[in-house]
Amino acid sequence: MSDIIDTWRRDHINFSRLLDLLEAQIGLYLEGQSPRYDLMLDILYYMTRYPDIFHHPKEDLASLRARELDPGAGVVVGELMRQHVVLRDSGAKLLEQLQGIVDGAMLKRESVKEPAGTYIAYFRGHMRKEESEIFPLLQTLLSEADWAAIEKAAPFEQDPLFGDGSLEKRYESLHRQIVRELENAGAT
Ligand SMILES: [Fe+2]
Ligand SMILES: [Fe+2]
User: Fold this and answer.
1) Which residue from 57, 84, 123, 133 puts its CA 20 to 30 A from 47's CA?
2) Share of the chain residues as helix, strand and coil, in percent rounded to the nearest 5
3) 175, part of any domain
4) Is 127 part of any domain?
5) What is the count of structural domains for the chain?
6) Ligand nearest to the CA of 8
């Protein structure tokens, strides 16, 4: 059942797109121009809900099973799980910080630069590590029965932004922006 890994790979493409958008908006903010705060908040709102609540925990489950099957995988699995905690905590903190700016908190631009840059780079590095090390390991170690057990423990969850289900109202504007970015990319 590497269908789950296929879903994760698709998720990564979507997450990368959002990180690119977030990076561009943070860049505008740091240059003193007017960024789209609503977009930044929606991106982080999504990141702290879909990836942190469904995507990464399911990867944890599969990785824990891999460690049971091969204790030698313990180091890489431990690192992966630590990265998930860092992503969850730093994403939540960044969301809080941006919300604070929208609500009128007086922050120095530099105080956003580092956490935003670190979050974006860390998330990208994390996905690269999963694709180059973790997914191949899972593919080698886990059986069909293991994947079925993981699916049972953490059933498929519709992605509220990129999934086939109805789009949540909160994400309408972000979704329009993503479609526009894709159209622009196709036009160049
Ligand atoms: Fe992950
Ligand atoms: Fe992932």
Assistant:
1) 133
2) 80, 0, 20
3) no
4) yes
5) 1
6) 2
